[in-house]
Structures are given as C-alpha cells and as structure tokens.
C-alpha cells in the first residue's frame, strides 16, 4: 500500500512539473553554405549577414536572388528576411508583387533541392505594418508568404510583441527562435549550423 501511494505521489509530481516547466523548443539543424536574400528589399539581409559572419558561417548575400541563383551553387540553407522597404523596392525598380513572386519561386526551388529555409525578421516592430505609412501592408504580406513556409522562424522579440510569429509557428508547427537582442542571434545561429 505504501509503495502504491509513493508511486501515485511520484507520478503526480512529474505531471505537475510537466505542466509548469516550459516545453523545450524543437531543435532545428541546418548547414552552410547559406544564401541570404530578402522578401521586400529591407535592410534585413545586410543585418543578418553581419550576424552570420560573426557566427563564422559560409554565406553569400544576394538581395535579389532567384531560383536560378539557388541552383547555381551548392547551397544547403536559404535565409529569407521578411519586411519590406518601399524605398528599397523603388530603388530596385520592383513592386511588392514582384518580390512575393520571386520569394515564392525561391522557396519552391529550395524545397525541390532539399535546401533548408530559414525565415528571419530581425528589424523589430518599426519594420512591421504598425510603423509603416497608413495603408501600407507590404511588411505583413512578406510575413504571410515567408513565415508559414519556413523550416524555422528567427525573430527579434521586439518584432513579435503582438505574438504574430508565435501564432504562425504554433499553427504550422514550425520551430520559433526568438531573441531579446539582435546580437543574441549569433549564438542561436551557431546552435543551428554547428
């Protein structure tokens, strides 16, 4: 009888711990070389390339990369930053529809080639629609396209204050890596790629 009571008590303790302790985020592994590009022509690719370099990873930056570039070299991972810049798209002479079409084709090609897709949003809430001009939804359009099709989502916590990336990750069962500071992403990249 005492053994049964102890066993029940022990099982109850494990159940309480399981409910109280946060679940570990799924581990996601990828490999270099990495192609870094943008969906929306924001400064995100430049920012993340600095962090990738600090992590000591082999990469190439091409903000306008298409499916052909993905096939041209033996890339093993694709990082697509989400967030649009009307100024950046204007300078490149492209519209958001062009960007969405290019990113969609790029992700489809990555799937065919079995290349890991990492969606990244590291420019914070300023880059999101709340900080954009009235009626400008281009940032959210890039998120709508890239985040649900990613193998992992990398996000700076400041850009997820509304829980948008958390919701997408939960619904699509995609690992979410959320960092307090952009520089913290270096450690996360090391974990993913090493």
Describe the fold and architecture:
By secondary structure, the chain is of the alpha/beta class. It has one domain (28-193): Rossmann fold. The protein is 45% helix and 15% strand. The protein has helices at residues 2-20, 44-54, 67-72, 86-92, 96-112, 138-146, 164-172, 185-193, and strands at 34-39, 59-61, 77-82, 116-121, 152-156, 176-179. The chain has a 6-stranded parallel β-sheet, with helices on both faces. Strand 4, helix 6 and strand 5 (152-156) form a beta-alpha-beta unit. Helix 5 packs parallel to helix 6. The longest helix has 19 residues, at 2-20. The protein starts with a helix and ends with a helix.
Keywords:
194 residues; Rossmann fold; 8 helices; globular
Describe the global form: globular
CATH fold title? Rossmann fold
Q: Look at the structure and give the CATH class.
A: Alpha Beta
- N- to C-terminal distance: 51 Å
Largest sheet: 6 strands, parallel
Q: Give the averaged pLDDT, no decimals.
A: 85
Number of spatially distinct domains? 1
Task: Give the count of helical stretches.
Answer: 8
How much strand? Answer: 15-25%
